[in-house]
Amino acid sequence: MATTEPLTILDASVVIPWFLTDEPSRDLALTLGETVRDSPRSFVVPPLFHSEFVHVLARKSARDERFVNGAIELVLRLGLRTVALSESALVRTGHWACRGLSGYDATYVALAEDLGGRWLTSDEPAAKKAGARFARTLADWVRKR
Q1: Which one, out of 7, 26, 93, 128, has a CA that is 20 to 30 A from the CA of 111?
Q2: CATH no., domain 8-144
Q3: Three-class SS state of 137
Q4: Contact 128/119 with Cβ under 8 angstroms?
Q5: Backbone angles phi, psi at 74, to 5 degrees
Q6: How far apart are CA 15 and CA 33, in angstroms?
Q7: 83 C-beta neighbours (distance < 10 Å), count
Q8: Using an 8 Å Cβ cutoff, are 8 and 135 in contact?
Q9: What residues form DSSP beta bridges with 45?
Q10: Residue 27 and residue 85: Cα distance in Å, rounded?
Q11: What pLDDT is stored for residue 1 in this prediction?
Q12: Mean pLDDT taken over the chain
């Protein structure tokens, strides 16, 4: 009997390097990008993903609107599902934030917990706080894929 891979909740930190050549994790992120392109239904994002993505790209591109809009259009064309947090997941964000995660990171982890998936991030300290059950780093994902 075939087992299905749990959903992966993508953090903006693993997608942003697709668009910025000077990002340290760019090569790892591009490997992920190929998998996302080939199997977009295995990946989801919370609604805040797009706001965080646009915010960081605008800041890192010196507010280049054409660049940011082109990047968001490409991400939208991938067909990633945006999944809202359930009420219980929203309540769990407090649990995670009180354990040292930012409110943003707590949202990703609570969604992973709610969906039985794992949050994929480039932020190693945050992934460690969330624990291996609910999070993994991009470097770990590439090593073990």
Answers
A1: 26
A2: 3.40.50.1010
A3: strand
A4: no
A5: -65, -45
A6: 7
A7: 18
A8: no
A9: 82
A10: 31
A11: 44
A12: 95
